[in-house]
Automatic annotation (TrEMBL), chain A:
Positions of transmembrane segments: 33-53, 65-83, 90-109, 158-181, 193-218
Protein name: ABC transporter permease
Topology in the lipid bilayer: Multi-pass membrane protein
Entry similarity comment: Belongs to the binding-protein-dependent transport system permease family.
GO terms, biological process: glycine betaine transport; transmembrane transport
Organism: Nakamurella flavida
TrEMBL record, chain B:
Database matches in InterPro entries: ABC_transp_perm/SBD, MetI-like, MetI-like_sf
Protein name, as recorded: ABC transporter permease
Topological relation to the membrane, as annotated: Multi-pass membrane protein
Family of this protein: Belongs to the binding-protein-dependent transport system permease family.
Localization (cell): Cell membrane; Membrane
GO cellular component: plasma membrane
Amino acid sequence: MGGALTWLTTGSNWSGSGGVWARLLEHLRYTGIAMAIALVIALPLGALIGHTGKGVAAVSGVANAFRALPTLGVLIVLTLWAFDNLKGSLTFLAPSIAVLVVLAIPPMLSNTYAGIAAVDPAARDAAKGMGMTGGKVLTAVEIPVALPLILSGIRSAYLQVVATATIAAVIGLGGLGRFVLDGQKQQDYAEMVAGAILVALVAIIGDRIIALIGRLVVSPGISGRRVREKAATLETVPPT
Amino acid sequence: MRWDWLARNAPQIWDYLLQHAWLAASATLLGLVIALPLGALASRYSWTYPPLTTLAGLLYTIPSLALFVVLPGLLGTRILDPINVVIALTIYTVALMVRVVADALASVPELVRQSALAMGYRPLRSLITVQLPLAVPVIGAGLRVAAVSNVSLVSVAALLGVPQLGSLFTQGLQLDFATPIVAGIVLSLALAVVFDAIILLAIRIGTPWARAVRS
């Protein structure tokens, strides 16, 4: 443990193309790209499913199956496929991003539709009674009310993605996982632990930031309800 | 798929499967055993609920690979020790189950608890013989999630060299050969299904009244 602190406080470990700053930026880039793609797919789809109530059974079944899928195996299989079919930097990047997106979608999707489906029917009826169209009900009533759950889905997705971006170093990708795996190869336990601590910090800090955003964007009339925390319990899975 | 490779390596794969099952199962059981009293505490004394669940949420934000790597330094174990994997997954299981147990116990109707007290049950006996059995379906649902995610998390430990089904993934990568990886994924999924079925069966046996009502 002490060795890791020494490693982290050594300036030369932070600079250069293999330094902490560069690896941190890589890690955040992979995470950001994957989260953005997953958000664009999962949020509209989840809103649609929650609003219409169609396809819930299919989606929840698929989401449960994904929970059991070993990420590491899927990542490696995709990479072996990419070796034969893709060229250049895409060989490593495409399978990694694909796995991260696939991991991020289920929690976002299921929390979005569950949150929207759980909106009090009376509120929905009142909005309709006021003459709102279906789309207006969705954007002005259902999404704001479901926002806490949607955000908690985004949080679990983020944790999964950050953790798995570490594993992606196995197939030659950069990011903070490099320190863990290179440290292991060179029997440098201090470097491994330093990498692990950095990943944990990125996970915790990002999680807090999303929680903070949630506090700012969720309407005060809705936040602070224990109901939503209870509903969120089963959507939380340990990060890979 | 190269079936001959699978046939030649069957004993090794079987060993990996047993090791994988053993790691995931012991962490799930250990986590449940630790979470039960903590969850009961959180439901009995409401002031302990926020700190316990916050701590649980915080533990969840630590990626498993990071936990596998850091634990040996904290515990004084060797990095290849399977015990690190069991402890890390036990931590996740406890983190998930404390809240589930607390909420499950809180969902038992207050009248039931008062009836038990009125019949002369002491609080502890009422908790163990009345409230806990009634909370079994909810606790079981949480345990299914924990068990299945434990099965998929164990494979990450292959990156450190702890042998189990995940070792098939790293082997496949080194050999540039998909067969062991596909076998590992299929066996891992199958193991998750078996664990899920065992817990479902346990819930069924543990709640005989639910069947009586249904039929």
